[in-house]
Design a protein that fits this description.
This protein is of the alpha+beta class and 450 residues long. Helices cover 33% and strands 21% of the residues. Helix 1 crosses helix 9, helix 2 packs antiparallel against helix 3 and helix 10 runs parallel beside helix 12.
């Protein structure tokens, strides 16, 4: 069964990556062979000219049911997929998606089955699973591009507009008018990586400005007992792994309207609720999708709010974060709280808590008036991997005219040196950040005085 942490990620963002690679060499050979056949038959050396041609479609059709592809999803990835959606019907076909250098996808976001008019309507499914047959480690390289959290918006749109029946009649036209998406998240992955995305998660394809083909084989996975129609308005109906890990419940009546608005705007989603509380995970707009800091957990009770930043702001500062929110939005409703969090910039927040003027009145520290006494401080960490924290600390050091050295690894290390007042100011800000284990600090050592 999927663990609680990964279940939260799927629920919040709508997709999941499996980093442990599967064997893909035989599958890659089949695709390369199909491409060679197209070149041989057409005489075209630039596959971009054949991207939507009949020869390329025919060659893919010949191998789309090959057991080499089907064993990827039905055998190699079965246990992983079933941990999320439960037992599924054996997959019988694949979609081979190669994005060639120079290829541009001119469609905006979509959910599958409704992109174009069809002679018949394809069967509904629970999720899509893709397997990368080659590295796709740079952006603007034909990347599978998702809109994290937007599956909640689609669910609320479905509840308001009639679900599957609406899409069968109107395709994507109305949904695209009502749900404008921001910038998508381009997924990067190595060969052998698998990605699983919720059926309702809007997605698209980035232009391929690289010199390499992007190879992914896609499978539509249908959980046993899946009801395609009802799943449009209850998107976790056939996701027992997620439901079991998170104990998902219906919206409580007291907060139903606000929760619907939060989810409709893509700000976040309810996780669970009780007799006198509701727990919501709110998307933090200034971070990339990850297991921790891209979401803020909010508990709303009759007496107030509790925040947890899931690995960014230290726990001791969570109450101050609530107080800051209430200062900015007095008497904040749950929706106003979610809006504030979605706009919150952690760097600006910490600088607001610990401004340059927060120094002893006898000699307030200023970057242009550093203390004559200099000192050096070193911290050793259990690990230091966060790029955003490292960038934040480098920025602070530059503003305070401090020398800084950061070693990002396990263990990690940070050393700063310069004016004593500025080192003290940096330390106060540093302590606002969360670390997996408390960093070990070498006591400040005076270097020299002028």
């Amino acid at each position: 069964m999927i663990n609680n942490l990964l279940a939260h990620f799927v629920h919040d963002h709508g997709y999941l990556l499996r980093d442990k690679p599967v064997e893909i060499s035989h599958a890659k050979t089949l695709v390369d062979g199909a491409m060679s056949n197209v070149v041989e038959k057409t005489g075209v050396t630039n596959m971009l000219d054949c991207a939507n041609s009949k020869p390329w479609k025919k060659e893919r059709a010949k191998i789309r049911k090959h057991k080499t592809f089907l064993s990827l999803v039905n055998v190699d990835l079965r246990e992983w997929i079933e941990s999320v959606v439960g037992p599924f019907v054996p997959v019988k076909s694949t979609h081979i998606a190669v994005r060639f250098p120079g290829e541009v996808w001119d469609e905006e976001w979509h959910i599958d089955n409704f992109v174009t008019e069809r002679r018949y309507q394809p069967s509904e499914f629970t999720c899509i699973v893709g397997v990368y047959l080659a590295d796709n480690m740079e952006t603007s390289a034909g990347n599978f591009t998702v809109f994290p959290g937007a599956h909640h918006r689609v669910e609320n749109f479905n509840r308001t507009n009639g679900g599957l029946a609406h899409f069968l009649e109107h395709k994507l036209s109305t949904a695209r008018e009502e749900m404008k998406m921001g910038k998508g998240w381009e997924i990067v992955a190595r060969a052998g990586t698998a990605v699983l995305a919720h059926r309702m998660l809007p997605h698209t394809v980035a232009p391929n400005k690289s010199e390499d083909n992007r190879y992914v084989v896609w499978f539509r996975v249908t959980a046993r007992g899946y009801d395609g129609e009802s799943a449009f308005t209850n998107i976790w109906e056939s996701w027992p792994g997620v439901c079991s890990a998170l104990s998902l419940k219906p919206h409580p009546e007291a907060h139903a309207a606000e929760l619907a608005k939060i989810e409709t705007l893509g700000l976040g989603a309810m996780v669970t609720c009780g007799k006198d509380y509701v727990d919501v995970r709110v998307r933090h707009a200034h971070g990339e999708p990850n297991l921790f800091a891209s979401m803020v957990s909010v508990r709303c009770t009759s007496t107030g709010y509790r925040f947890h930043t899931n690995g960014y702001i230290c726990k001791a500062m969570h109450a101050r974060m609530v107080n800051t929110m209430l200062e900015d939005t007095p008497g904040a409703s749950l929706f106003a709280c979610a809006e504030w969090i979605s706009r919150c910039n952690y760097e600006e927040l910490i600088e607001r808590w610990v401004p340059y003027t927060d120094r002893p009145s006898a000699g307030r520290a200023q970057p242009d008036r550093p203390s004559a006494e200099e000192t050096s401080v070193r911290w050793t960490f259990h690990h230091l991997h966060s790029r955003s924290k490292s960038a934040m600390m480098r920025k602070w050091a530059a503003e305070m005219k401090l020398d800084i050295s950061i070693i990002r690894s396990k263990p990690g290390q940070l050393e700063i040196s310069g004016g004593k007042d500025m080192v003290s100011l940096f330390t106060e800000r540093f302590k606002c950040l969360y670390w997996n284990k408390k960093p070990v600090m070498v006591c400040p050592i005076p270097t020299h005085s002028t």
